[in-house]
Amino acid sequence: MDPKLADRFLALALPKGATRDHPYIWPVRDDAAVAALAMPPLLVSIATLDSLRDRQVEYCNLMRRAGKHVEVALSPGVDHMFYLMHGVAEPEPAGEDIAARVAELIDTIGGFVGRHHGCVARL
């Protein structure tokens, strides 16, 4: 996602004058507060071309430092919310690559749910 576009969305979603550290989008204040929370395992989807990628990695690292189980679904060569854009924003053959990344993400989510929550959805 273009950083300027991300800033525009944030301006619409957050109270006037709020920053990216506002609790609406960054609910974590410190490692001790996170460590005290009972949480199930987390799966974080990160697209390698996403301008928010570094922030997502920071979130994963913070959760791990607090003792939380975090798995990352890394999707190479795609941008923020790529799974919603297949067939909308990208002409073929780039759309085929996006479709492959979407399929990989769905498989990863299914495996994660099966490993950690005792059920597996089959498509």
UniProtKB/TrEMBL annotation:
One of its GO terms (molecular function) is hydrolase activity. InterPro entries: AB_hydrolase_3, AB_hydrolase_fold. Residues 4-83 form the Alpha/beta hydrolase fold-3 domain. Pfam families: Abhydrolase_3 (PF07859). Coiled coil: none annotated. It comes from the Eukaryota. This is Alpha/beta hydrolase fold-3 domain-containing protein. It comes from Lolium multiflorum.
